[in-house]
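retry 2 of 3: previous attempt timed out while embedding pyridoxal-5'-phosphate. Reduced batch size to 1 and resubmitted. Inputs unchanged:
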Amino acid sequence: MTPFPRDLYAPLVPYAPDRRPVEVDLSDNTNRWGTHPGALAAVRTADPEELLRYPPVYADRLRAAVAARFGVPLEAVATGCGSDDLLDSAFRAAADPGESIRFIPPTFSMIEIFATMNGLVPRPLDRAAPRSPSAPFGPLPDPGLLLDTEEGTPAIVYLCRPNNPTGEVLPRPWIETLLDQAGPTGPVVLLDEAYADFMEPDEGPDDLLRLAATSDRLVVLRTLSKAFGLAGLRVGFAVGAPEVIREIEKSRGPYKVNRLAEAAAVLALDDREGWIPETLAAARAERTHLARALVERGLAPLPSGANFLLVPTEGIGAGDAASVTAKLREAGVAVRPFPSLPGFGDAVRVTLGPRHETDRFLAALDTLLTPTT
Ligand SMILES: *Cc1c(COP(=O)(O)O)cnc(C)c1O
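retry 2 succeeded.
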């Protein structure tokens, strides 16, 4: 008999981000401009039946809303309790315990956790070459290095674009080369686009999502937790070929999106000209503004396609990531510390918010900066 607790679970600890109350919370990349007003109204005016009855098994209204927004077939869409749920389900659908998953650190911290939870072997690809002004994230690795390892071919390749926590937007041709080399029988490529909504429109944020609907191996994951302001409702979706999506739904199981979440998400996804594009434009403008303000202070934020900036703490002169984070918190602002990030050293990740929150952050930061005169 397998011993309980399972050995496999020994390295896992329950997720415990710092959620102590703070005046301005720029630590978790949720939407600092608020929540979608139509979605909020839908939750406020819910009928008692909505609570009493089970939701549709696979959230077909939500699938239809995603299909309509992006011009893909409904059968190419799976939904879940946040995109975390879809990552977890996709891991189970695509890999047997003991198989491996490839990714390029630093990336989404949950990946290694979901891998371990599902008995998969995390195989990070070291991006060995150093960073430089012309390649602020380091040169891109040869995509083939993700597909073949000394230990064999991984079952899954995970990519995140824009990447959390660096903000890097992997170029589309590089991803297409990876898909070509993987071919129809290679690893399943999970492309996490939690922050794609914040990319510049001319970067083609939805191109790969559309490609996924007809691809043998590509699955794109999106969430309503960030741009759409609905993290509390837990809604995510995946787009892939219908045969792939069916497998993900099997491993996901029924009733993962509740009725209120589905109703709110449908309204938010339908918003093409209102609150959503307005707040996205505001976030992009704030990204430029904050990056400039940091550079003026002698800091070196990484270029970002997301609603956050990664700032190496080296130039701040107030200690490592943990102590910078603690001092900012004392000044009323929460950010996320990233100690010893491969390639970047200690850094903090700052979520973009409306101008008054940026100003609060900069004022807190200024109390830490060593005066130069
Ligand atoms: C926030 C985040 C998610 C999780 O989204 P949920 O839908 O809230 O589960 C997924 N991937 C990345 C990279 C994220 O930063």
